[in-house]
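Quick start: what a row looks like.
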Amino acid sequence: QVQLVESGGGLVQAGGSLRLSCAASGLTFSSYTMGWFRQAPGKEREFVASIRWSEGSAYYADSVKGRFTASRDNAKNTVFLQMNSLRPEDTAVYYCAGRRGLLWDCWGQGTQVTVSS
């Protein structure tokens, strides 16, 4: 059974940093593109970042480019999202997801990130 478990969320002041982790089990991790999404209250879930097997192949939403960095440790089946220069508008539940094809077909339960002004 595929399982993705996020951790590392919390409360931080604007300008601060957090590092999210997502531990994967039950899948061939290196075969998956891993991604991060977020959903703020009253808004739709949106794409934040994705990273392919090769760490160099990372993609970001324009709203987080230059501030967030996705990375992965294939030996530990873990993907990370380093978030710097956080803003109040980054407040959301952050979800880890994985896909082999076109669809994101496995999801974590989410971790809350709250940025105070």
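That is the whole record. The chain has a mean pLDDT of 94. The first strand starts at residue 3 and ends at 7.
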